Amino acid sequence: MGLRDLVYRLYERRLEAKLSKDSIPRHVGVIIDGNRRWARAMGLDDVSRGHRKGADKISDLLTWCSEAGVEVVTVWMLSSDNLNRPKEELDALLRIIEDVVQELVEEGWRISPVGALDLLPARTANVLKTAKEATSDRPGLIVNVAVGYGGRREIADAVRSLLQEHASKGATIEDLVEVLDVEHIAEHLYTRGQPDPDLLIRTSGEQRLSGFLLWQSAHSEFYFHEAYWPDFRKVDFLRALRDYAARHRRYGA
Q1: What is the pTM for the complete model shown?
Q2: Catalytic residue list
């Protein structure tokens, strides 16, 4: 271990010691942004190598979250908009996502797909469904893998599901209008039954949500970090938790 690594390790321990269990977010959402830019910054012509490097970081993130006492992590790996990328890049990215999901299953994590699986190729959708079925009874951290995810699409899907549910019971639109409230919609989101995210982290310096967890993030705290996702370190994660703990959360304006 070099001197720099030793300094970072000592700093990590110092940050961990100062974090109170009472101030740890229950649900952390992460926009893992910057894989392609990292690859280009490293002089790599094949951007899929950036995606692979970023995928390798996900296991580290889950370990950090589990150690800190986080209950749910939502990792945005592929947006519905990303499905319009050039076929060669998209195919490579989907293979990487399939590989990393299977790796997470083997590592013992509890996987829950979050997204419009009907938009994905059959092979990718099947990997995600199989991962959920194989790990649904596992205890501990819930890992929401957001693939083919878009916030607006999620809300539209929730409303569609709600309408279908009431129609199956013989209810009319007028009947639904009389009782509809925000909880009815929340019960049909991809993350139904889970706490809303307390903390949302985005890497690469971009300071926007891009449609991530639009409904659920109404009261979330945001943390934006300059590093590209493959360069995101445990010390950066701990700083995000420290920043979150120092905030006075206000639910409203």
Answers
A1: 0.93
A2: 33, 82
